[in-house]
Amino acid sequence: MTDFTTDTQVTARSKSNGANREYYTYFAIIFVATLPLAFLTWGLRALRQMTLPEQGPIKAAWSQAQIITPRIFSA
């Protein structure tokens, strides 16, 4: 006799893993896309204020990716 309950659990896991992979793929693309602008903004702000901003360019790009990616998945 075949036990179908184990097959449904494996399928449910693979769907959630696929969603996580898709989320992290979008996150990585958005992060890489926002890096140049974050470096430019950081550099211009540093030149204008003559001090280094508190938030570095990588942290700024990371936070932008954290804001944008969930909006894509909620739409």
Structural write-up:
The chain is mainly α. It has one domain. 84% of the residues lie in helices and 0% in strands. It contains two helices and no strands. It has helices spanning 5-49, 57-74. The longest helix is centred in the middle third of the chain and has 45 residues, at 5-49. The radius of gyration is 20 Å and the shape is rod-shaped. The model has no long low-confidence stretch (mean pLDDT 85).
Number of domains: 1
Cα separation of the termini: 43 Å
Number of strands: 0
Give the proportion of residues in helices. Answer: over 70%
Keywords:
mainly alpha, rod-shaped, 75 residues
Summarize the structure.
By secondary structure, this protein is an all-alpha fold.
Q: Topology, please?
A:
Elements (H helix, E strand, L loop, with lengths): L4 H45 L7 H18 L1
